Amino acid sequence: MTKEKNNKSGITPSEYNAKSINVLKGLEAVRKRPAMYIGDVGSRGLHHLINEVVDNSIDEALAGYNDRVIVTIHKDQSVTVEDRGRGIPVDIHPEEKKSALEVVMTVLHAGGKFDKNSYKVSGGLHGVGVSVVNALSEWMKVEVRRNGKIYMQEYQRGVPKGAVKQIGTYNSENTGTKISFKADKEIFKATKYHFDTVAERMRELAYLNKDITMILRDEAEGLEETFRFKGGLIDFVKYLDEQRGPLHKPIYIEGEKENTPVEIALEYSNSYSENVHTYVNNINTIEGGTHLVGFRTALTRTFNNYAYKNGLIKENSKITLSGDDFKEGLTAVISVKVMEPQFEGQTKTKLGNGEVKSIVETIVGEKLSEYLEENASVAKKIIDKCMRAAEAREAARKARELVRRKNALDSMHLPGKLADCSINDPEHCEIYIVEGDSAGGSAKMGRDRRFQAILPIKGKILNVEKAKLNKILENQEIQAMVSAIGAGIGDEFDSEKSRYGKIILMTDADVDGSHIRTLLLTFLYRHMKDLITAGKVYIAQPPLYKIKKGKEEFYAFDDDERDKILKRFKLDGKGKEEKAAELQEGTELEIGVKGIVISRYKGLGEMNPEQLWSTTMNPETRTMLQVNLDSAAAADKIFETLMGDAVEPRRAFIEKHAKYANLDI
Question: Do residues 174 and 145 lie in contact, with contact meaning Cβ atoms separated by under 8 Å?
């Protein structure tokens, strides 16, 4: 007789049978596990809903049937996306025996993207589909203008409220689809859309598709913006480079091979950083892929051949130009259209099609060679800049040797002020990069030594947006970070070698703290970008206020949370909110007769180790913001604006976004 042992769940093998298998019908699976389909149920996932619907309209444009997309954010935060495409088919599906419109809106993985007769290329296959948006919406309404008739169907949380019906006719030739939906507040933590977030994606799509007009309206904010760029990628590069001091006009490359269209615009500037963005069927491939490899290979070979052929580099010269030298100051946008794209990488945004490398390499090699022969003065400017980059690269190599660690577990080269953790498994380790020795001391005493490491940094690190790598590596605070993280820097950086699974930036909740955090983020974005791509960078959220009543203590992370706590006490004094609002950093305020004391922290150093642990470092109670790259081009533009040399764009940016920012939280 055999004994059945309980597993960790307490279920015996005999209980695991056919009845244990749950079948989620229709779109139930999406509502059950929404994060599997849209990433998360926060602001990022909310905005992804709009992107999914818009992507379908863009696919119609790629097929040559749509020239306009209008997105309207209504006052109740519902959204309407309208295009002038062919309109979703409404006739009866031969297998499903219901309208094709209903199939598209209610069945996962249904649509015309799988049929190459309908769409030669599309970006929609990479997304999750409009049916997922339907499932995660409180309600959705679809209107189709097709064959002279207007059809409509409504849904509630993904379920049709009735059959597809004809509601009218039209005389014009404007076919198309209009989809309206409202995100389900039962699913999403927040249901407010941000105009700038939506606008950034629409601007990007307009650059990538020069024949389309994108219109965005926000009825709640009273905002409207139209995006149309006849110059396409050339305008995109100009937009990205407008504050960098370009050395020449953008170089435009276009060609097609093996039914794969390739379009590229590139330009060199006076900056030290590289700014290359790649797209496949309008999808931002932030991890690059074979199209990027083909571009880099052709760029290096073509420029080197031209330089030697025209005597810009002597045969016996000690300087040799490598691929790294052609990156400095380069801004480029690479867009390819692939019939059957294969995506891989940590975020499934890396192109894996091997044939695309040779296609891009061939087209870039031919077109760029022609351009250089016809524009000798531009070629010389670029080669001269790359020669200077080669000299700096050699200096950087020597500087890099000073901070390189022998291996991830070798503590001999770790910075002396690092309080390391005892666990060696990076997946379970985290490092806090803390502003100031005082806060660093509290963090060291309050941390869990098993898995939390502390690295205090002094003051403001070097602004890497304005410095070459060799100068960056001379900065002691940067040296300490590179050594502690242990994964290299720049082109040698490998996020897999990071000694920590989480890199957490912890700075004071004031203006100086915000500046230091921005400097740190700029460094990580420019020289350890894969950490951000891999989702390993976080921002700690220390509390702004402590509210004490007797022996009870409450912490508030912003003014709204502070006021909610105060309301719980039903204070009898008047003007408490006004008094609390005037509370200055590092001061206390006693309110009412109940002995309630509000303290506003001046900095992390004011908290004792226990407070810092319980509010900011304890994994069970802390709040952290994960840094991600929804749009690499937008992120690059923001860092250049905030940390670059140009003053006016920075002032304009701050004035525009001041109402959304609170530098104290």
Answer: yes
Catalytic residue set: 435, 508, 510, 512
Write the CA distances from 485 to 426, 480, 540, 616, integer angstroms.
Answer: 10, 9, 18, 21
d(CA 307, CA 310): 5
Note the pLDDT of residue 314: 73
Cross-strand partners of 434? 456, 506
| Residue 228, CA atoms < 13 Å, CB-side half-sphere | 11
Range 467-471, long-range pairs (CB < 8 A, 24+ positions) = 467/272, 468/272, 468/392, 468/395, 468/396, 469/272, 469/392, 469/393, 469/396, 469/399, 469/400, 469/527, 470/392, 470/395, 470/396, 470/398, 470/399
| Full strand arrangement of the beta sheet holding 275-280 | 251-257, 260-268, 330-336, 275-280, 283-284
Report which of 384, 387, 519 is spatially closest to residue 460, judged by C-alpha positions.
519
Q: Show the tokens assigned to 73.
A: 């954010």
pLDDT value at residue 73: 97
Amino acid at the residue 480: A
Q: Which has the closest alpha carbon to 469: 386, 397, 528? A: 397
Total Cβ atoms within 10 A of residue 645: 14
Q: Rounded CA gap, 656 and 45, in Å?
A: 25
Query: Where are the domains positioned within the chain?
Result: 28-227, 233-400, 410-541+625-644
For domain 410-541+625-644, the question of CATH label 3.30.565.10 is answered with no
* Residue 501 CB coordination number (10 Å): 16
CA distance 323 to 390: 10
94: how many CB neighbours lie within 10 A of its CB? 7
Q: E strand or H helix at 154, and its extent? A: strand 149-156
Mean pLDDT of 287-302: 96
H, E, C per residue of 157-203: CCEECCCCEEEEECCCCCCEEEEEEEECCCCCCCCCCCHHHHHHHHH
In the CATH hierarchy, which fold is given to the domain comprising 28-227?
Heat Shock Protein 90 (3.30.565)
Going through 391-517 in order, the beta strands assigned E by DSSP cover 430-435, 452-457, 502-506
Cα separation, 342 vs 649, whole angstroms: 39
Contact of 209 with 59, CB cutoff 8 Å: no
**3-class state of residue 8 by DSSP:** coil
More confident residue, 314 or 268: 268
**Mean per-residue pLDDT over the chain, rounded:** 84
Q: Tell me the one-letter amino acid at 300.
A: T
The helix or strand, by DSSP H or E, that contains position 261, with its residue range, turns out to be strand 260-268
Residue with tokens 């080269």: 413
Backbone angles phi, psi at 2, to 5 degrees: -95, 145
Q: Do domains 233-400 and 410-541+625-644 have the same CATH topology?
A: no
Give 305's pLDDT tier (boundaries 50, 70, 90).
Answer: very high
**C-alpha torsion 641→643→646→649, nearest 10:** 30
β-partners of residue 504 are 432, 538
Task: Measure the CA angle with vertex 372, ends 250 and 385; round to 5°.
Answer: 70
CATH assignment of 233-400?
Answer: 3.30.230.10
Q: How far apart are CA 256 and CA 260, in angstroms?
A: 5
Q: In the predicted model, is pLDDT for residue 120 greater than 80?
A: no
Percent with pLDDT over 90 in the chain: 48
